[in-house]
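#onboarding

Welcome to the new folks! Below is a worked example of what a typical request in this channel looks like: someone posts a single protein sequence, and someone else replies with the predicted structure as tokens. Don't worry about understanding the tokens yet, we'll cover that in week two.

Example request:
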Amino acid sequence: MGKSCPSRDYPRVMDQHRKIRVLQAIRQGLIGGGESHVLSLVSALDRDRFEPVVLSFTEGPMIDRLREMGVSHHVIPSTRAFDPSTWKTVKQLIEDEGIDIVHAHGSRAASNLLLPAKWSKRPMIYTIHGWSFHDDQPRVQKQLRIWSERLLTSASAANIAVSASNRDTGTKHFSGFKADVVNNGIDRRIFDPSRQFPDVRKELGISPDKTVVGFIARMTLQKDPQTLILAFAELLRTQRDIVLLMVGDGELKAEVVELARSLGIEHAVVFQPFRTDVPALLQAMDIYCLPSLWEGLPIGLLEAMAMGKAVVATATDGTKEIVRHGGNGVIVPEKNPAALAAALATLHLNPENRNFLQRAARATIEDRFSQESMARQIEDIYLRIVSRQPSKQHERNNARI
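Example response:
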């Protein structure tokens, strides 16, 4: 585990002279949407009022970044949801760290914080970064996940949905469901296109006169990288001077690389493993593509827009809350290589339109998706939850009655 502090009596929440300690829990230490959200949140929290402690259930680059930031962090190894082997250790961590509020990000983390938080008598907040159930799942699997999400949301002191569509899905499936909608926010100091970055094009041997289409995401079913490869193969039948840069790892990586080879387009596709220099990668791109099948509120898309990239994305619920077709990006149907290829060709051949969308994308982030706004809204939820917690003296007085 990382740094810790001496055990404290709980609750201390009514003491106005000390910080509220919040345990931020996430399923893994790899950098994805939820993990980027946690890093942004702990970076932007008001440290005069709140003290974050981060729990991850795997090691990874997020842990390295927390160490650099000087944020207290812990790893309790597990890759399972509802893993009883972790619960005693998690409860001990909550108590040893003097945690006031448990904030679980995603269903897997929430499933392993629910009982430890209850046993420790700490309120749990659950942020929904997209639901774990989807229409393309087998019926039994989907029903089990709906049941588990109902359990997690009903037992939480508050629910946070990163998009209005996530909130509406919860309202549709769960009686009495309520959630605050708090959109993900981006640190514009990091994702700032006016900064100087290492030349990724030069590093990767990509000519400055090429149009670069970029994909930075986990290569999983959700992100549907195969459709992007199929679309790019179709695009190359009529277009030249265009390159696809795909950055990320995942269970579909080998399949995607083989698909590019079998289609004879490997000469025009550059594969890179997971990298932490995301702003520099985005700076090297002209068009960012996200062909997902579902999304909560995609942070990768927000980062690309913050860097002033023209974006092409599929019509998933969370994405449609960010991208206005033709206004600040392009929306295409899911699993439709022909439509995706046509959209990419249009932006490749029309630099003026591409530049317009790039400017509009950056303005969207400045207007609606700042890290600071996200943090202030979540802080308000913390204070609301804290105000409901009785003081230790109040508990003692009640015990005498």
